[in-house]
Design brief:
This protein is of the alpha/beta class and 257 residues long. It has 8 helices and 10 strands.
Amino acid sequence: MSGVNFIDVAKTYEDGTRAVKGLNLEVKSGEFLVLVGPSGCGKTTTLRMLAGLEEVSEGEIRIDGAKVNDLPPKARDIGMVFQSYALYPHKSVEQNLTFGMEMMKGQEALSGNEIDSRVKEISNLLGIAELLGKRPKELSGGQRQRVALGRALIRRPKVLLMDEPLSNLDAKLRNQMRIELRRLHEEHGTTTVYVTHDQIEAMTLADRIVIMDGGELQQHATPQVCYNNPANDFVREFLCQHIDEMVDTANQIVSKR
């Protein structure tokens, strides 16, 4: 497992928009860190810079102590799961899982036996062993999401990145997948950076949350600390009030039964 460090990281686009401003952040090895904030706060840009999909304008990003600013995504040893599952429609579940490993060359190349072993391990872990022969169109949304997650995990990346991975699921399935993601993290322990706009998702999944607004980090702490001791008015209004309203509504419903 590997940690991640953002050191005075900034992103400025050609039109002058500063999407991220002087971000200093440590993601501990084995941690499940959630970036949360309103639309346009800089959370997805931060994730994309870590993934190598956006250039860093200023500062450094380090993975396992090594600077990765100039490395392409495939050289950063990361796994990525995004809102769109991006599965190959003409390939089976098993072929979707193995494709990336089969493309490895040189010292990174894996034997057929190792690939088979990893497929067995990850399909059992995710409960998709019976789906290996099916194609994506034959799967439910939740099953496709599990396959996308498996494809990212099977390469055993140093860091797993997820950008709104549950947003296409209905409320019931989204809740089930939150529980599943947390269970998988407890078992697998991969350093994870997860982006969401959903406060409840952030609070229930994270070891620590990073609350952003206007491209700046507003608070970085455990969910309990952010809820009980918000760093400023923005955090209080964005995070705490929203959750307080949900708790009050739930209490009112219970009291009327």
